[in-house]
Amino acid sequence: MIKDISMLSHMNQTNPVKALDKVCREFETLFSHQLLKTMGESMPEGFFEGGLADDIFKDMFYMEVARNVADAGSLGIADILKRHIQERFGEDGKSRPTEVVTDRANKMGTKQASGQEERQSKPEKIGEGS
């Protein structure tokens, strides 16, 4: 769990790949916590029969379960998020890989050019058709 934002900032400068992994795991933890908390609201009262102590205990319990879920990668959200960020912005999550950008631009330019040629070679006239 990220305890201090300055720790994450330092890690981002020294080892950005590890920082990206940690942030993605933390996102999965928070997502899992919210999911468990919402699910828990639909369950009947438990150990302490309501009250402040019960709310605190449940929240701590859900957070610990969420940490274990994220550490095990059970939902796979962190891995998907990390892969998505790396595809868009490179291995470190910061710099965009130029070959991917160039590749996509070339494909888009080819598609657009061929689409324009097709439209120019087949003009549609109003009133003609079936």
Question: Could you give a quick summary of the protein structure above?
Answer:
The chain is mainly α and 130 residues long.
Give an overview in words:
Helix 1 packs antiparallel against helix 2. This protein is mainly α and 130 residues long. The radius of gyration is 25 Å and the shape is flat. It is built from 5 helices and no strands. It has one domain. 72% of the residues lie in helices and 0% in strands. The termini are far apart.
The stretches of 5 or more residues where confidence is low (pLDDT under 50) are none
Mean pLDDT: 77
Helices, by number, come to 5
Largest sheet: none
- Percent strand: under 5%
H/E series = HHHHH
Can you lay out the helices and strands and say which pair or pack?
Layout: H1 5-14, H2 16-41, H3 52-72, H4 77-89, H5 98-121
Helix pairs in contact: 1-2, 2-3, 2-4
